[in-house]
Amino acid sequence: MPEAYIIDAVRTPVGRKKGTLAQVHPADLGAHPIKALVARTGIDPARVDDVVWGCCDTIGPQAGDIGRTAWLAAGMPEEVPGVTIDRQCGSSQQAVHFAAQGVMSGTQDLVVAGGSQAMNAIPISAAMFAGEPYGFTSPFLGSRGWDARYGDEEVNQIRSAEMIAAKWGISREAMEAFALASHQRAQAAWDAGWFADEVAPLEGLDHDETIRSGTTLEGLAALKPVREGGVITAGVASQNCDAAAAMLIAGERAVRELGLKPRARIHHISVRAANPVWMLTGPIPATQYALHKAGMSVADIDLFECNEAFASVPMAWMQELGIPHEKVNVQGGAIALGHPIGATGVRLMTTLLGALERTGGRYGLQTMCEGGGQANVTIIERL
């Protein structure tokens, strides 16, 4: 089977809630890393076969196939098409998978995979709330098939995070220590210049403005739980934010004909799912499945990225699979860097690639929890 290679990857800085990027139009937000990617790689953009883009809540200015409109807003050739993917939080990671499958099949040579999310302009779950005038307040409400299978179980990510903390015996104090480490690692990475090469400044912003360098355990302990009597607070959850990221995936023929120098090879791609009511446990069986399919073990992986939707998610995943925290999210995670839903998959992979190059590691594994109980897993090999 032909190989799929990562030629380069770039992202915007992450803008915090009501921050620097809050007024950037979603099409322009997505266009920015596309322009930077084309400039960095020196490719003729007309050679791109497709743009595969992740985005959720595609209403308002994010509607109308934002993958296509971002490409056009970037001033790129009209003959190149684009498509938008919604696998919830894993949307742009799935975009990478589809791009890789395209070049592995031999039907495509060069694909831009990426994602964007303007969470200031379009709040999380806005697409669900948009159904309210028509009597739909939930994607499940009124489905006889869903009700027959899952009854009236509440489907809510906060509830899921609480359930995970209870099942795996993860205390609030342990989650707050994990959250503090996320901010400390992210700030240390910026201070050391580890993010500099992956970020294309936008609107005068040249760093991730979501990091709270003054975070303390005392401050985290003072926050109120989201649910009465619960252990999940805003301090141990990912942040709403604005960002976009793009990656160039190439097949062997494009690498040869265009003289491209790959940074990594796509070693494995897969996606699995678990109970949608639990919602956030998918990375556990998905990682087990991926390692089995790839003939690998946890010990074979040098670095991991597991999205910090809530601290309890990667903590349960690490506990269940025996993965040391020292190898996970080494430059911080979504608690500090934000979770721009549609962009997070490629944002994580961009950071993972840079971290492998910095440390000399060979294999990196990335996974994240996704709506519907799903989880993508990608294993990349640094070249």
From TrEMBL:
Residues 5-252 form the Thiolase N-terminal domain. The keyword Heme does not apply. Residues 260-382 form the Thiolase C-terminal domain. Keywords: Acyltransferase, Transferase. The active site is at C89 (acyl-thioester intermediate), H339 (proton acceptor), C369 (proton acceptor). One of its GO terms (molecular function) is acetyl-CoA C-acetyltransferase activity. The keyword Cell membrane does not apply. InterPro entries: Thiolase, Thiolase-like, Thiolase_C, Thiolase_CS, Thiolase_N. PROSITE patterns: THIOLASE_2 (PS00737). Gene3D superfamilies: 3.40.47.10. Its EC number is 2.3.1.9. Belongs to the thiolase-like superfamily. Thiolase family. This is Acetyl-CoA C-acetyltransferase. It comes from Novosphingobium aerophilum. The lineage of its organism: Bacteria, Pseudomonadati, Pseudomonadota, Alphaproteobacteria, Sphingomonadales.
